[in-house]
Amino acid sequence: MSLSRSTSHGSSSCSSVIKALRWLLKSAEVGCLQVVHSVLIGTFLNQKVPRDRKQAPPLPLWALVQWERRVLMSNCTVLETILLGTFLLMAWGSLRFSDAQRLDLQKIIYHDGTMRGVIWRSKTAVSGMPLAVAAEGFLSKGSHNWLWKFLTVLDTVLAKSGLSDVDFLLPLMDEDGPIYPLQPMDYATALFYLRKFLGCPWSQRPDPLQHLKLNFTLHSLKATLLSWGPQLHEKVTPEQRLSQGHHSDPNSSLDTYSRDVVWTSLTYQRKMIQEVQSGWRPAIAQHRGRMVVFYSFVGIPKGVPPYGISAMKQKFMANYPSELIHADLFPSTRLVSLVHDQLSKKVWKWVPWKYRISLTRFMIGPLPCAKGKVQWLTEIQRDGGFKQLCMRYQVGKCQTPNCFTMHDPFNEIDSVETLPVHEVDPVQDFAPPSDSFTRGRLSQPEQANAVGYGAASPSCCEYSRLKLRDDDGPKALRSPEHLSGLPNLTPWELQRVQESFMMLSRCVEVLTLVFQAGLRDDSGAFASRATAQYPQKLAQLFANLVAPLLDTSALDLQWSSLDALMPTKHLSEYPFAQIDGGGAFSHPDWSQDNRQEHDWFKMLRTSWMNRIISERLDKILLAHVASGNPSPPFSMETLTPFKDDLEKFLEAHGHTPDWSVRQHQPIHLHILHSLQKIMHDVDFTLLPSLLEGVRNGFSEAIPPSGIFPPKERTDIEPDPLSAHLSNWQSAEEDLPLTRELEEEIDKGWFFSYQGSLEEAQQEYPAGVAIGKLGVARSDSRPPRLVVDSSVCGLNGRCIIPERSTLPTAKEVLRSYPLRQCQRNLMGFSLDVKAAHKRIVLHPDECGLVGFSLEGQLFFYRVTPFGAVFSAFWWARLGGLLLRIFHHLIWLSHAGFLYVDDFLFFMEANMMPLSATLLCIFCQLLEIPISWKKTAMHSSIDYIGWKFNFNAGIVTIPIEKILKLRGYIEHLISQPRTTRKSLEKLIGLAMWITQLFPLMRIWIHYWYHDLYTIPATHFSIDAGTWPRIHQYLTPNLTFHTAPLGSAIPISGKLIAVRHQAVSSLADLTSLYIKTDNRIWLRIINPNSSKRKLRPDSLRILKLFEHWLMGVSPSRPMRAKPYWNGVAAADACASGSYCQIGGFIRHPSGVQFWFSEKFFHADFDILSIHLDPNMQRSIASFETLAQIALVWLVATSFPGFRIPICVKSLSDNTGAESVSNKLFTTTHPLCLFVEILTCLASTTGIELDVSHTWRGQCHSG
């Protein structure tokens, strides 16, 4: 053993070794180690450099309040409830992590608003340590508190586990909840969740602890309440502080006969609650400042009076009459106050960015989200009827012993098992209150072009300025300076502020839908335009003006007549959806008329439907889906009659049922093959290939399906096959996850090869390729293992004959609503578990899909995730399943398949029956469905979007918007970036702009920067210059690096000593004679560095501003098509071009235009065109479509009408960009920019169809 005082880079220091040896001497009584107590060795334990002791800082009060608020939310998940409940319990009980994991759950007592238990072993007490926690917390009052909800969820988890001796509080969990059988969570995982939840990921507000999270540990929970005690030394006693920290005097006998020994700590906890609710705020650890429970306005000067702000607005409008002022553009009260203060003092200081926000963000930002309010329980069902709860008792005001309402129902229940269970009929309202059925129903007529006039009158009692008077009136909860609530409000007062704002925001949401899709008259103008008058007696005439737009049968719209108000989508009405993921012979919308398909499964569907209805299996499925149960919904006993019906159906069509299963995959392929033959499916080579084992397109060709478009071959020479015995860093860093491959071995997906690489090459003559193992991480799913088959050259050499087609969100919108349907719709989604790995490879080609881990070779038996052929084969199998599902349902519906996610929607009264039909089919054929992800509701999350089929609204998740804003903010602050950062930005922006196509064209600036690689300077010796041509190809690309240089191979030479070169002849014309090194400017195609141009930064700021004000929801119904006729054309020759077109109204009135432009006209606008303008004919055809939109808009009042105009064009390029509104081709992209700006201003969209040239000229 050698010790030194030098800095140690090993796993342990000398002091650790000495302490370990002293412990060994004491515990094992090893006499030869007495030397470790000598003075010489003891000097190594002395700390010569004085330093503070490292301690875990306590958590801020803000964190405990936000956690408690989240637990009380109705949409809090099981994962969040258990984790946050445990953290709160550790904080209130001042527990170490080891204490929480040694709590006997069977001995917990919940009584009289307290929870008591025993830690069976702790650091300071071997024989056990009592524990008590007050249930009320900072936000809870009465019987509805965070502790009750936490214990209720924990009790459900324990009951589901079936264990009776669980002695730990925090089980190991994944995103879906606890992992069964229950196992204790380790320290590192718990620490990860602690720091994650300190940022409140469920909230839309910025993370206030973003830069402080790493300072907190699990011991911070124990230190939190204990650190508050010294600040209240006058109100809490040392005995209470000792009891809270479990540091009682072991020599005292008083505790022994006190039995529980917890009442002192409970007094301490309730004293803290009382002080915080009265306005006291504990100071956090030194150098961390102060943090309060709710939003703070510290540091903001005295606000500007209302008349001052009004004067500012009038002055601004007088100076800038063309500018608009509304809440999204007007500065917040904070910003106005700061600037006004600096103007008055004539002292200019930096205004922090967090104060540079609009009035809208100022009002919305500080408030908790609408779903964050505490959901009150007002009544319960008891003794065959409903019992009203006393709300005064819930807030601590009712003391009447004989109150006619119920006080605490939970203490009156002896056992939860005695509560009656009633059958519940299927309903639509499975969503949280913010997404309730009523709200969706109320949004239906607004988004369906059915409302002629909309007005709202939200309750404004909390906004009344009368409350600001100094009299005996009600207390004011807000003021002009504090619109989001005055400081130091109680939780219940803040809830009132929040509810009033939520009511206002809901009214604004409904009015926004009316604006986006309002009712129009025969001329196309808004019907409400008839009310845009200002008569002298407005109050008397207002009702008369609005009355013609209302139903004369009743003053108020009856809820029962709401369906009749909805417009019907006719059988021939545009738009039509085309792609559903099932191939060319499958279509998503099965509500169209004159369907060509034959009803092959009518007999089977009829027999199954009768059984489902007679046994009410649809109700069982509804309850199963609502519970989130990961197991299949139906037992084998239930499925036996359905299996008999299926066998009879197959025998009736001449097929013998074969229920055998191919090895290494679970699906009954023979039954599937029989059904495919019955329905005469065109992909007849699929099932034989699956039964034999599929080819990967390397050694033998993959038979085409005939349902997907052919894939174009590339002339690029692929890389040769190679073997990589090391993995990507993501797999090497996450070895515990990587070692979970044993589960896949048990499933037979791959096997361990007992031999060397050379032996494998002899056993698999078709070829051996060893890819790299990696871990793919995503925000929406847990990490998963993938094999990179590109790095070993396999993907490049696999010939895939076709390319699959996938539906987008637009296809779902084109199918909505179902044709000739006015009833409510419901959605149903299915997810296939590990879809790619359900397809078995041909045994001869297993050697091509391998990887190495810790020196051992592994080869796949199935198609792995990450190989190009895997996606192709699953697309064919998934497409077949979708086509079968379409025929099974048969009734009017719409269905889609995106990779492995199925989506269907149809009438709400039939969806449970059809969904039950599909689930029974999947269980019988052993199709591996992830049942816990199955969803059936009016609102479905699908491919990242939230579709509300009842309300007719599609919504972007706020997480996606915040993620895109984060990318934008990062690139604005760092214009010198990487290719990966730009790809992330472009990918997410392209995804979001699917439903906001008018913003998509601006992304072409980012594409330009993505493919523009910055050049780098490299130097070569002067003696190398005469031979430089030996290292270059004719296009000046380096095929070999000059000796002694770092020039990358494939780098392109563009300049020598600031002189541009483009060919080898240019090099010979340069006169260079010097002894100094020669600098070359080279573009490295493999470089990851990128630089944003000023134009790209301008578009980044444009997107940033757009995302701050964009509504995350938009109607699913398409804009109505204009009934007129429109066409446009263009021609060009030499230095001029000419455009022309016409529109014909339904009334027969016709307008036309014809314009001629020269090359100089475009130069003035900084649009640089080719001198031969014929080469830019697509741009001029697009310009003609722009003029067409303007001509249509000018024929309507106000120049704005939300319609879609069908137009004709004989140019394919103009037709494409006018419909997609995206291109990266210059200068065509500049004309598309103008088209999108005009479409945004007028509300008019184009649907351009191709026509032959003569028809456009003769129109």
Automatic annotation (TrEMBL):
Coiled coil: none annotated. The chain crosses the membrane at residues 76-95. InterPro entries: DNA/RNA_pol_sf, Hepadnavirus_pol/RT. It comes from the Eukaryota. Keywords: Membrane, Nucleotidyltransferase, RNA-directed DNA polymerase, Transferase, Transmembrane, Transmembrane helix. GO terms for molecular function: RNA-directed DNA polymerase activity. This is Reverse transcriptase domain-containing protein. It comes from Cladocopium goreaui.
